[in-house]
UniProtKB/TrEMBL annotation, chains A, B:
Binding locations of substrate: 56, 298, 350
Binding site for Mg(2+) 3: 33, 78, 245
Sites where the protein binds Mg(2+) 4: 33, 47, 78
Residues holding Mg(2+) 2: 49, 78
Catalytic activity: thiamine phosphate + ATP = thiamine diphosphate + ADP
Binding site for Mg(2+) 5: 248
Keywords of this entry: ATP-binding, Kinase, Magnesium, Metal-binding, Nucleotide-binding, Thiamine biosynthesis, Transferase
Note: Reaction mechanism of ThiL seems to utilize a direct, inline transfer of the gamma-phosphate of ATP to TMP rather than a phosphorylated enzyme intermediate.
Binding, ATP: 108, 125-126, 152, 247
Domain PurM-like N-terminal: start-end pairs: 31-143
Protein name, entry field: Thiamine-monophosphate kinase
Chain sites annotated for binding Mg(2+) 1: 48-49, 126
Enzyme class, broadest EC rank: transferase
Amino acid sequence: MEIAKLGEFGLIDRLTKDIKPQNESTKYGVGDDCAVLSYPNSEVLVTTDMLMEGVHFDLTYIDLEHLGYKSAMVNISDIFAMNGTPRQLTVSLAVSKRFTVEDMEQFYNGLRLACDKWHVDIVGGDTTSSYTGLAISITCIGEAKKEDIVYRNGAKETDLICVSGDLGAAYMGLQLLEREKSVYYSQVDEAKRKGDKKALESLAQFQPDFAGKEYLLQRQLRTEARGDIIEKLRAAGIRPTAMMDISDGLSSELMHICKQSHVGCRIFEKQIPIDYQTAVMAEELNMNVTTCALNGGEDYELLFTIPIGDHEKIQAIDDVRLIGHITKDSLGQVLVTRDDQEFPLKAQGWNPLQ
Amino acid sequence: MEIAKLGEFGLIDRLTKDIKPQNESTKYGVGDDCAVLSYPNSEVLVTTDMLMEGVHFDLTYIDLEHLGYKSAMVNISDIFAMNGTPRQLTVSLAVSKRFTVEDMEQFYNGLRLACDKWHVDIVGGDTTSSYTGLAISITCIGEAKKEDIVYRNGAKETDLICVSGDLGAAYMGLQLLEREKSVYYSQVDEAKRKGDKKALESLAQFQPDFAGKEYLLQRQLRTEARGDIIEKLRAAGIRPTAMMDISDGLSSELMHICKQSHVGCRIFEKQIPIDYQTAVMAEELNMNVTTCALNGGEDYELLFTIPIGDHEKIQAIDDVRLIGHITKDSLGQVLVTRDDQEFPLKAQGWNPLQ
């Protein structure tokens, strides 16, 4: 169905009609000039992110349901990165004429799946049109006790540096999707060049080759915010001294923490967690897997520092790896390679403005 | 300067470097995964809006400083429309390559001018790239005591219906801008057709004819949120029973209030406040000025209902006009014309999805 047929209010009604707020802090959701929230006993955390078609996502790779899921998760991840609990979310969409009501429903399905996973209420938004493509802006609101909030600026000398999960897989997933896309287009081009209609027709059934690389795809297309790690840290009585989520690559994020905390760091190549599939894919593409893990974006794992006294506690937590420690500011940011050479860390993270 | 030269973080640093939060409720602004706010004694209001180039604004009409100002004001207006006080704002921008660092600074100048006017802190955002044009998403956060919040759904039979300022001028301002744009392009086309290079060159100095219509332009390009009216209502001890801001046209907004409050309404054409310049422009364009006032968008005046007992109090307030009253739901939404005919109100407000 064409979106114009429903109009703005009809579409919003349809997308939000059975949203029922779950959180005590949500006093009023969709349907007025503002949402109304109540946080008498904690601080309010607010984060916002914008995703543009062609820049942040390519709809040849990702369907709208996964995109909705990912859009919500990357914002939810920012709340966890402050050691908070996500509670509400608003979503603004600008859509061009090629999108249908059903497309928007798919997007909302994904969005709601992600929100339901972390008990987040969709409390408002805006749906409008765009000349070209799809633009998504999400704001997520959460809460934390004042004393629990973890900023980027609290890392201290001798603190241990930890990351959750493994790194570089989301980036390798993107490389894989791009490779298969270019395989497809080169076959189309060749069929056109030869005037081979039959080959062109059969390319409609083109099956990209993802065998053995499912994990990479999952990491690129089904982003998960690591609220489970936050819960485990709380249960273990560990309060990180500094924390952020890894959206632009480990190097870049670590440098943010060092800069804002006025400290240096020393991380060890051999400690950086890398999945087997990530390593295989890097080899296939003739890329250095450590470079991918250091600079590949979109893993949305947590990077955090903890007091050295929490060493034993952290080792009891699954899926968290110690990768180094914080040093004096004057020692700079250093990577120690497998063969014990030292290099200054460089932020080569993904830059959407270059 | 090209934006790519600064990169994302460089640009954000430059745009936000001397932003100093003013509000007690702003605990931490730009620079971490989230902003941190504190609202122990009031409810938190959240509103969000997305503005797309070519759909919501045309950069041939509006410069980036005015656009920044307007983008902030339309969101601030939503907080006032709940009878709240705006406090914080986040802004996400997606910009194509044709925009420079200086352009972004201009946009931020306007944004900050609007925020300063209402003591709103810019606490975060996102700056990224877009394939085509400029996309703006703003979230505004405010506060109100629970008992002060005014929803759309509180209008009661016999309540009086009021609007601030005058209506239709922003829409007429847009018509004026579009007329002058088409005059310009028709002269360009004619000069090209004739191959008249001299005429083409002199068109670079084309001066649109806005004489005597400055107010219309101001209403279109320099949107003001009516916080002054909110202050006056408070000072007079009037608490509206229902309220919203008029962004899509009086008819459309009044129907929202009636629908959500389960009431009808009766408004009087002769009471609708219209500026002299609006009336003159409508006549020039052969348009019915009442239709413009009912359906023209972007005035950002306040529409609200008050108990009939506040009749005298409201008449003592400058720049507020009584336009009718609330009736039983079964009586529908009625416009009484100057010659005492009755028509059902229709929402022909601006629909960005049609």
